[in-house]
Amino acid sequence: MYTIDKYNPVISIDLNNGIYIFDCESATGKTRLCKELRKLQAYGEPVASYTYEDLLIGMPVDNIFDSNNKVIMLDRYDLYKDKWHDKIKECSKNSIVLIDCKGEFGASEDDEICFIEMTADRIEVTQ
Questions:
Q1: In whole angstroms, what is the distance from residue 98 CA to residue 69 CA?
Q2: What mean pLDDT do residues 20-34 have?
Q3: Nearest residue to 48 (alpha-carbon basis) of 59, 58, 60, 34
Q4: Which of 19, 116, 118, 121 is deepest in the core (most CB within 10 A)?
């Protein structure tokens, strides 16, 4: 579980360490969560996010798969789903790994589904 309430929006991720795939419904707040996690990472919080645009501009992923990160999010992963399977599995032992993947994830048989709820001042991720 990871909750951070000292910034707005409050982010609450009520999950244990592991790999979680968001349901495939569009416009639920996944990209907003990705952007908020990026901000929190800049503030020094132990979270990280990465998206397809980062891949296109050549942003390295080394800091994303840092073992100190409590939450790792890969947004629009279906556009680059052939990458980093071993790193994702390794990080899932110590981190909550959230993946936005519209199709079959296929890199792990241990992944589970998660859901996101968003309001103006709160983002919640649950199972």
A1: 12
A2: 87
A3: 34
A4: 19
Q: Cα 103 from chain centroid?
A: 16
pLDDT exceeds cutoff 90 at 23: no
The dihedral region occupied by 10, where left means phi > 0, alpha psi between -120 and 50, and beta the remainder, is beta
Q: What DSSP designation does 112 have?
A: E
**pLDDT digits 0-9 by tens, 93-127:** 999 999 998 766 666 678 899 999 999 999 999 99
Contacts of 10 (CB under 8 A, 6+ apart): 3, 4, 121, 122, 123
Instruction: Let me know the angle formed at the C-alpha of 35 by 108 and 62, rounded to the nearest 5 degrees.
Output: 55
CB-CB neighbours of 104 under 10 Å: 9
